[in-house]
Design a protein that fits this description.
By secondary structure, the chain is mainly alpha-helical. The chain contains eight helices and five strands, in the order ββαβαβαααβααα. Strand 1 and strand 2 form a beta hairpin. The protein is globular, with a radius of gyration of 16 Å.
């Protein structure tokens, strides 16, 4: 979780029992933070820890910042450019609409599908997250295609192609 409150940048990891960690595990990933001593909430980590993990993929959640702008800035940062995930184009902004798709809200299922398609692209080659999102909003909220296009598409954020 990326935050830039009061001009201070912070990166935090979720507890092992939280949905964000569960999403990674369910998608077939291995949370690199599983050996950290985590508290009851988001645990702050520094860049050195992130570099030491040298993860294959990095997913950024940004509740209060434009996640694509955050990703763009990280890709331009010399330290981040040295990370394997960044070098291999595996730095992603977690998607959302009015709410991030990583939260314990009905949208978590969209986040789960999206994350699984990134972690195991060979298994989800035919997944179109935008089609899935439209079906989700139609099924759960009764939105037709026009309503989805007018109300949800303009607020979609993150790496949703």
């Amino acid at each position: 979780y990326y935050s830039s409150q009061d001009g201070q940048t912070a990166l935090r990891m979720p507890p092992l029992s939280w949905l964000q960690t569960t999403l990674v595990k369910n998608a077939g990933g291995i949370p690199v933070w599983q050996d950290l001593e985590l508290g009851g909430g988001w645990t702050k980590v520094n860049f050195e820890q992130i570099a030491a993990w040298d993860a294959d993929q990095i997913y950024i959640i940004a509740y209060n910042d434009n996640v694509l702008e955050v990703i763009s800035g990280l890709k331009e940062d010399n330290q981040w450019q040295a990370l394997r995930a960044v070098k291999q184009g595996q730095l992603f902004g977690f998607p959302g609409d009015y709410y991030s798709w990583d939260q314990p809200d009905t949208r978590w299922i969209l986040g789960q599908m999206w994350l699984a398609s990134k972690i195991q692209p060979e298994l989800f080659a035919d997944l179109d997250i935008n089609v899935e999102a439209a079906a989700f909003f139609q099924t759960l909220y009764g939105m037709d295609e026009t309503a989805f296009t007018e109300k949800i598409v303009p607020v979609l954020r993150g790496d949703v192609e």
